[in-house]
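Field reference: "sequence" (input) and "structure" (output). Example, Transcriptional repressor - histidine operons:
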Amino acid sequence: MNPKLQNPAADALWEAVLALRTPAECQAFFEDILTVAEMEALAQRWAVATMLDEGRTYEEIAHATGASSATISRVKRALTFGADGYRLVLDRLKVRRRNRVPAGSNNAP
């Protein structure tokens, strides 16, 4: 983990996120804590990550998401050389879909 993100305020934020139980709770929390632009940027990066994981091309991703090649490249770099956060969630969601465990369930892997 990036040492710059290891501090009491960041730790408190991660605890707050872990307290969320449902997609609706997540939406409400993130709507309150982020600006609309920040929310859109996060959603776009997540869409880019999922499409890269599916093997889609930069051109397809840019067309579908409106993301710049720089954003797509940044997400690709994080998928390849990052802290494995994207990979962790992508893989967990694949398992959840295979097992048809509803989002927000405490029984998710």
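The CA atoms of residues 7 and 34 lie 20 Å apart.
The chain has two domains: 1-33, 35-101.
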